[in-house]
């Protein structure tokens, strides 16, 4: 794995008293829920309940509503998981309490996006939740608690600090791909297939290069047929389709930055023909490159100064 880009969206500490239930709305981003203290359950639609104990980490796919329950028995509350149009949204409050009395279940809950390179959202295509239980010596509870405290303090730099801390949690989870026996690791098979990871890194770092299936398979020491099979298994699409998506994402970023001409952007995206680049870009973004740039500039001018609840962190992993 060469780079991990984490867009930290919002974070809340959720505290539930005994017997309390918290409906969590399904949103556009994945959500992460880390049990800091206590015990309870997560209920998603008609799926098997998820047991929460200290150090349990759960990542819920985008658009999936859920219910968190501070109960000792896995009895789903009425209307569990049916809150797509309502319910609590992580980050809408720094600390959200439910029920009366002392909390018996405390979690750190956040919405986020995590990209591998410039085009692959690691969690956007999840079909089922990721569930993994860590140990006390992993110290993820301290990392998540510190992230919550940073945002609650509202000190300068609290948002970027919390984003960096969340990235540590995700990296710890992704390392589990190499040792965990849970079925969710199959979604991240690329992380344990170094040749395929190197091929993707080559695409992402040099999108303008004249990549072909032959050149990529040769670069990572695989036969053409083995490379095609392993790449498609890891990404769910062919190398050339993913390369086109990488190039379009790169071009969109360059256009939004407004530092190069459209012809230069096309070259940087691996296109020698402006007309070919324009046709492909229009298929992906629904507008010509010049129109996309103008719209991005208008949006940038109209945007307020970013809050510390939404920051982006990009580092070499």
From TrEMBL:
SUPFAM superfamilies: Homeodomain-like
UniProt region (Disordered), positions on chain: 74-96, 296-317
Annotated HTH araC/xylS-type domain residues: 197-295
GO molecular function: DNA-binding transcription factor activity; sequence-specific DNA binding
UniProt cross-references to Pfam families, sorted A to Z: Cupin_6, HTH_18
Tree of life domain: Bacteria
Keyword Transcription: yes
InterPro entries: AraC_lig, AraC_XylS_family_regulators, Homeodomain-like_sf, HTH_AraC, Tscrpt_reg_AraC-type_HTH
Database matches in PROSITE patterns: HTH_ARAC_FAMILY_2
Keywords per UniProt: DNA-binding, Transcription, Transcription regulation
Keyword flag Acetylation: no
The name this protein goes by in its record: AraC family transcriptional regulator
Organism: Allomesorhizobium camelthorni
């Amino acid at each position: 794995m060469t780079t991990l880009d984490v867009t930290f969206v919002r974070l809340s500490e959720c505290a539930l008293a005994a017997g309390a239930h918290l409906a969590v709305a399904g949103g556009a981003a994945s959500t992460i829920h880390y049990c800091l203290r206590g015990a309870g359950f997560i209920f998603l639609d008609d799926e098997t309940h998820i047991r929460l104990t200290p150090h349990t980490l759960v990542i819920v796919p985008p658009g999936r509503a859920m219910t968190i329950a501070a109960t000792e028995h896995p009895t789903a509350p009425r209307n569990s998981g049916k809150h797509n149009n309502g319910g609590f949204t992580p980050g809408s409050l720094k600390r959200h309490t439910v029920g009366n009395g002392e909390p018996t279940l405390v979690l750190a809950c956040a919405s986020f996006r995590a990209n591998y390179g410039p085009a692959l959202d690691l969690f956007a295509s999840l079909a089922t939740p990721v569930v993994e239980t860590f140990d006390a010596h992993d110290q993820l509870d301290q990392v998540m608690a510190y992230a919550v405290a940073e945002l609650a303090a509202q000190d300068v730099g609290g948002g970027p600090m919390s984003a960096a801390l969340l990235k540590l949690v995700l990296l710890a989870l992704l390392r589990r791909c190499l040792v965990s026996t849970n079925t969710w690791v199959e979604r991240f098979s690329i992380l344990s297939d170094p040749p395929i990871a190197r091929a993707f890194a080559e695409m992402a770092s040099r999108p303008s290069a004249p990549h072909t299936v032959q050149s990529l398979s040769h670069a990572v020491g695989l036969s053409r047929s083995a490379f095609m099979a392993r790449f498609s298994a890891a990404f769910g699409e062919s190398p050339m389709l993913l390369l086109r998506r990488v190039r379009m994402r790169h071009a969109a970023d360059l256009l939004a930055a407004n530092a190069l001409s459209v012809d230069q952007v096309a070259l940087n995206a691996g296109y020698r023909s402006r007309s070919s680049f324009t046709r492909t870009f229009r298929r992906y973004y629904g507008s010509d490159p010049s129109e996309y740039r103008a719209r991005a500039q208008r949006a940038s001018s109209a945007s307020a100064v970013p809050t510390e609840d939404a920051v982006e962190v990009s580092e070499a992993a």
